[in-house]
Specification:
This protein has 397 residues and is of the alpha+beta class. The chain is built from 8 helices and 13 strands.
Length: 397
């Protein structure tokens, strides 16, 4: 057995629990904290910086304007309890081969720190800066193995992936597969992970050639049939569509056309039964389509009938409204003519009454002047008779 076999990368073990904690809960738990490591990121570069973690999460940090600084800063705060202080100092003082820069920086800080008698925790801070020039030299994307993150100036699907994430490992495996063969060729790999030994080997028929796929245990993956293919043409940097795609053991046989025996794979299963099943499936699909078409036609006819009924109702209502309006208009005209005739009669009666009053007034005035007229006529007549008599007397003389 290899001494490194117990270091299986990303093996499935344990259970992840996620809980949203309040401030009171955090403060209460600080009494029992022996070690706390807090990492923060500050982007003083003139562009957005994306940080990608090993688990695949990625965070975009906007630019913080600061004329005094121009770098991406990774700040780590360490908080070590007194009970772990001496053991930590003893370990950090020992110089080892192939140490990281972070360990060397910690040694320098810790050896200079003296813990007071009343201090319960040792507190210190480390900072790492990444300049824009360093990013440019690494094609604007750096994997910082000290903090196990990717620092990138790309955004969204253009950033990453993290080299040791599930997507990153699949992409690396795909690149290795492409490098082994022709880069213009299409590559496909199928792996059966059967940790419980309940699925077994499978056979596949490729253009008449039969291939055996052995089921093997793999502590780094879940049970299932895993398939890897080339990167799609649409976006070659889209990691979510690259790498292993997992099918459950129950669905893989039908989807990937896997067979339990060589003979089944040679004949693609029971050919006659398969053709009958395909024919039945097509007939069922055709019947279903006919049924859906009939239902759609009936629904359309119902809608047409309802539309005709509604149209007739609206037309009848419009005709009734027009008839009611015409009748009301006729009645209004008749009433207007009646009122007009009534007012005309009133005007004629008033005019006749006025004329009668005028005639009566003139007659009354004339009767008042009649005695004077008669008197004047009598005087004139007497004068005439007197003149006539005088003339007659003169003639006789």
């Amino acid at each position: 057995m290899n001494v490194m076999d117990h270091f299986l990368p990303d093996a499935h073990y344990g259970r992840v629990e996620i809980t949203q904690l309040g401030l009171a809960h955090l403060s209460a738990n600080q009494r029992d904290d022996l070690l706390e490591v807090r990492t923060r990121y500050f982007n003083f570069l003139p562009c957005v910086v994306t940080v990608i973690e090993r688990n695949g999460l990625q965070w975009e940090f906007p630019s913080i304007p600061d004329p005094m600084r121009s770098a991406f800063v990774i700040r780590t705060d360490w908080r070590v309890h007194r009970s772990m202080h001496q053991a930590f100092i003893n370990w950090i003082k020992m110089v080892r081969e192939n140490e990281s820069k972070q360990i060397r920086d910690l040694r320098e800080i810790v050896t200079q720190h003296q813990l007071g008698p009343l201090e319960q925790h040792m507190l210190f801070r480390t900072e790492e800066t990444i300049t824009h020039e360093e990013l440019r030299q690494h094609k604007f994307e750096i994997y910082d193995h000290h903090h196990d993150i990717v620092v990138s100036t790309f955004r969204g699907i253009e950033a990453g992936p993290h080299p040791f994430s599930e997507m990153g490992r699949a992409l690396a495996l795909l690149d290795q597969s492409v490098a082994r063969g022709e880069r213009e060729a299409f590559n496909e790999a199928i792996k059966i992970v059967d940790n419980a030994g309940r699925f077994g080997d499978r056979f596949i028929n490729r253009n008449g050639s039969i291939y055996r796929i052995s089921a093997t245990p793999d502590a780094t993956r879940e049970d299932g049939v895993w398939v890897i293919r080339n990167k799609p043409f649409e976006n070659t940097r889209l990691p979510s569509t690259v790498g292993w795609h997992r099918y459950t053991l129950e669905e893989a046989d039908d989807i990937l056309e896997l067979y339990k025996t060589y003979v089944e794979a040679e004949h693609c299963g029971d050919g006659e039964t398969k053709r009958k099943q395909e024919l039945l499936a097509k007939e069922e699909s055709l019947l279903k389509a006919k049924g859906e078409l009939a239902e759609a036609k009936q629904a359309q006819m119902r809608e047409q009938h309802e539309w005709e009924v509604e149209k007739t109702r609206i037309q009848q209502a419009l005709e009734r409204a027009q008839a009611a309006f015409a009748e009301e208009a006729f009645r209004a005209k008749m009433e207007l003519d009646r009122m007009k005739a009534h007012y005309e009669r009133l005007m004629l009666d008033a005019k006749a009454t006025q004329e009668r009053k005028k005639e009566a007034k003139e007659t009354s005035e004339w009767l008042k002047q009649l005695p004077a007229i008669l008197g004047a006529l009598g005087v004139a007549y007497l004068a005439y008779k007197t003149a006539q008599m005088n003339s007659s007397s003169a003639n006789k003389k």
